[in-house]
Amino acid sequence: MIQIDHIINNVDGLHARPIAELADIAKKLGTQIFILKGEKITNVENITEVISFGARYGQKITIVVNGYNEDNASELVKEYIKNNL
Fold first, then answer.
1. Which PROSITE patterns match (predicted)?
2. Domains of the chain
3. How many CA atoms lie less than 13 Å away from 2 in the CB half-sphere?
4. Which among 8, 31, 52, 73 could bridge 67 via Cys, Cβ 3.0 to 4.6 Å?
């Protein structure tokens, strides 16, 4: 399990499209990706729940990558969230 802390740098916060793309990355790589905000945690495949977190610009979230090939997957996830979240 690899954890990646991230500050939301998109002025619009978390949105469905980038979360869905993150879920696609997880499916293709055979990993699970979770998002944590405060005490809440959810799988990125549950887009509605991720959006309900209400993560806004400047807030901290933690991305957790778990499963097969998590080292490679975490590098791809880091690059993706840097450019899209």
1. PTS_HPR_DOM (PS51350)
2. 2-84 (3.30.1340.10)
3. 17
4. 31
